Predict the structure of D-galactose 1-dehydrogenase.
Amino acid sequence: MMSAIKLAIVGVGKIVHDQHLPAIAANPDFQLVASASRHNIVDGLPGFKSIEEMLAAVPGIDAVSLCMPPQYRYQAARVALAAGKHVFLEKPPGATLSEVADLEALAAAKSLTLFTSWHSRYAPAVQPAKAHLAAHAPTAMQVIWKEDVRQWHPNQEWIWQAGGLGVFDPGINALSIVTEILPSLIFLNRATLEFPDNRDAPIAAELHFQDGGGMPVHAVFDWRQTGKQSWDIVVQTSDGELKLGDGGARLWVHGVEQPLTKEAEYPSLYRRFAGLVREGRSDVDVAPLRHVADAFMLGQRKVVDAFHD
Ligand code: NAP
């Protein structure tokens, strides 16, 4: 029997409580030993104000999960890798592509695991959809990701700041599914990003991609949605329509809903991370972040009404 991986969490907030703690508690591959967060603690665990303080005080930590906002992830990841710890990065893996490349190189040089986690890729519809599209070529795709920012991101100032990604914080989840299920690579042709007058990150985006063969992918992300929320991907194929709903929790083929396994995104992420650590491998995929970077590079900027909480 292998000993448990001694894990610490850095940046204790909403997603740690909602998902990381239950997933870790249910996985015997991990033993949670400490946390580091400026203001918050995990009940029953030694808590420290910074990752540096935690690593100096707690011997034997093997790995860390970095769950703070993306603008602050690189610094903590660099400290962890330099100290010889394996690293699980929440999504998005960083604020820029280049900082993730730097972490990848450092992890490789030190023979440590670096994992860019994309939780939506573990939604139950994703692998069945991928298999379907491998057998039935897609001819067009439509992504509709519309949610109410006031409901899902209350009091999250970082999300509106540069590097916080704005509406791409949920939108990148859609892009992580798109890049997983499509059999071909896509790239952005044109985009419009809507920035509130008083914010440094977009509240809405419309994106037009294509693949090398001209297959169009149209995506609409919007944070001003009230009432019904939409996290849908609709694909036309040589064999009719495929639809993923509820962020990949549901799947329809030709309008018929398919039976799926129960949602287990974070348990799956931690199983994957344990496997990578045990096998001495990394999993670094920046494809969703690259599309977001392209949107910021190519997108037309439109200033819209100021946003107030
Ligand atoms: P959050 O609760 O706003 O932030 C997490 C924690 O990060 C905070 O409690 C805070 O703890 C720390 N933090 C905040 N600002 C910081 C700063 N300037 N420097 C260092 N630490 C800071 O956010 P979250 O919703 O958990 O999201 C965190 C990450 O998980 C994001 O990248 C997000 O995309 C991803 N994620 C979120 C969800 C979700 O449903 N919320 C789902 C999947 C993935 P201290 O004040 O104690 O330092």
About this structure: The two ends are 51 Å apart (CA to CA). The chain has a mean pLDDT of 98. The chain has nine helices and 15 strands. The longest helix spans residues 265-279.
